[in-house]
Write a structure and sequence with these properties.
Strand order of the largest sheet: 1-2-3
Radius of gyration: 24 Å
Helix content: 55-70%
Structural class: mainly alpha
Largest sheet: 3 strands, antiparallel
Distance between the termini: 85 Å
Shape: globular
């Protein structure tokens, strides 16, 4: 008799003696999840342990938790949250609303792949300001990638004029944990970095520096950024499902009154008459 084995360093299970399909004990990186961690470990410690092969230090756990708070709700103006709200207001399933948020929030404008690209910058440039200035000055294509070339420096806001207040507050808070060198260096060199990029820093740029301080790879940072932004998308989708489409905050779904409808039709008729006169 042959058996198939699951090859993973993350998780190990022991079956119950009387039921091979039930788990007696589960270990994450060697830690007994239900026998030791449950009730003792924080959620962010479990999250870190799943992605890394060791438990986080206290400073790294605090940093990850603070970052999770900062990313938890991008807000209804964010494209990924807007997508989830569209699903909620239309009566889509919970999974559909979350998949909409993931799909829209995966891109290169405040999305998961922007964090990936920004983290690649930390891998290549580290804390070398000169290297960063050269990188930010030109937007090179990504060899062998299915993604198009980025249209703005990853981690910076192409539509911004000055650094947004929440961005400055988040950077100051996260740099204070002293869990690594990237955030504190970014805080000290922010004016030069923004000058090189030609636009202000964004939360995705801070997230990239924080994930780098936590020793996550760009691939891991991209995945975590997608994950940590889902709570806000879920909450807004549920809220919109109960409010209904007539009060959806983006765009006019239908005219509010007969007077508005008559005014609209009158304007359309006037335009048609003018077009005939010029014909």
């Amino acid at each position: 008799m042959t058996t198939d084995k699951i090859h993973t360093r993350i998780w190990r299970e022991e079956p119950e003696p009387d039921n091979a399909f039930a788990t007696r004990a589960a270990y994450c990186r060697g830690y007994d999840v239900y026998g030791e961690m449950l009730g003792q470990a924080r959620w962010v410690e479990m999250l870190y342990l799943l992605f890394r092969e060791e438990a986080p230090t206290a400073a790294r756990a605090d940093l990850l938790e603070a970052l999770a708070v900062a990313l938890a709700n991008p807000g209804p103006r964010d494209a990924s949250v807007h997508a989830a709200m569209c699903g909620g207001v239309c009566g889509s399933t919970a999974a559909s609303s979350l998949m909409a948020a993931l799909g829209v929030g995966a891109g290169q404008l405040a999305g998961g792949h922007e964090v990936f690209l920004a983290m690649q910058g930390w891998v290549e440039c580290g804390t070398d300001l000169g290297a960063w200035q050269k990188r930010l000055a030109g937007l090179a294509t990504i060899p062998g990638s299915i993604w198009p070339a980025p249209e703005h420096p990853p981690g910076f806001d192409p539509y911004g004029v000055s650094t947004a207040t929440p961005v400055k507050q988040t950077l100051a808070c996260l740099a204070g944990f002293n869990a690594g060198s990237h955030l504190s260096w970014l805080q000290q060199n922010l004016p030069d970095m923004e000058a090189a990029a030609g636009c202000p820093l964004t939360l995705s740029g801070i997230a990239a520096a924080a994930f780098s301080d936590l020793d996550f790879s760009p691939e891991q940072g991209e995945m975590l950024h997608l994950l940590l932004r889902l709570p806000g998308a879920a909450a807004h989708a549920l809220e919109q499902s109960s409010i209904g489409y007539k009060k959806f905050p983006f765009g006019t779904v239908e005219l509010e009154s007969t007077a508005e409808l008559e005014s609209s039709l009158e304007l359309e008729h006037t335009v048609q008459l003018k077009n005939k006169e010029h014909a």
